[in-house]
Amino acid sequence: MIQHILKVLIIYKVIILLMLLGFNMSATAKDFLTTKLLADKGVTSAQYEVGVMYHEGEGVSKDYSKAFRWLQKAAQNNHTEAQYSIGYMYDKGEGVPQNYAKAIEWYRKAADRGNVYAQNNIGVKYYGGEGVAQNYTKAMKWYRKAADQGDAHAQYLVASMYDKGEGVTQSHTKAMKWYQKAADQNNSYAEYEIGYMYYKGKGVKQSYPKAMKWYSKSSDHGYSKAMYNIGFMYHKGKGVEQNHDKAIEWYQKAAKQGFAGAQEAIDSILNEKNTKFQNGR
């Protein structure tokens, strides 16, 4: 106990000295030093926070190897978020060689404790066959675990599985139900898919105005594909009065986000206008 108090006093003396010498130590740097002291004493939550700070470069230089070491300490003490983080680092090869099998092993530890991100990622692994044999049924099982806890991205993935009939009997009605749950949480992908279902009349009565409504919601949340489709609807006069200027405006928004085909669509309209002008129309 006395040694711990002495360490804290030494840290604060160092901080004060650096400030007197003109060094401007950020609040995050101070937080790192004090959190590190607790982590050194074996406080699990502090070990996790130190790991996160090394991973993100908050108050200390980014270092994935040190991040992994501290997160592993917390994970071994059953810290759920740390277990997920260890899985993620194995998944992405951050600070350790990429290893999908170990990623799943750690994701499973966190998932069994209710972590929705881990549950989602296990579903992704089964869907893509990374580290496990591809299995849509098991992918759906794990997506549902996260979706039932209210995770919007998982709800979108469940909807997509019903939409495509992957691991479940295809049902556009059930797909719409789950897309709506995700859209209620402003998930831009789900909003787009609802728009597309109204555009095509999949599981709902076909409606261009409703398609435009949902594409607009999705585009408001930054989804470039929805921006492109709004441009297409103005381009072709689907549910709105044909307006090439507005079509170009929306295609440009999609193009700025790197959406493939948007610039080609703009060029198509400009070429069409140029042809009409040359023909005197």
Task: Please characterize this protein's 3D structure.
There is one protein chain. This protein has 281 residues and is mainly α. Helices cover 72% and strands 0% of the residues. It is built from 15 helices and no strands. The longest helix has 19 residues, at 2-20. It is elongated. It starts with a helix and ends with a helix. Residues 15-25 have low confidence and may be disordered.
Task: Present the secondary structure layout.
Blueprint: H1 2-20, H2 27-40, H3 44-56, H4 64-76, H5 80-92, H6 100-111, H7 116-128, H8 136-147, H9 152-164, H10 172-183, H11 188-200, H12 208-220, H13 224-236, H14 244-256, H15 262-278
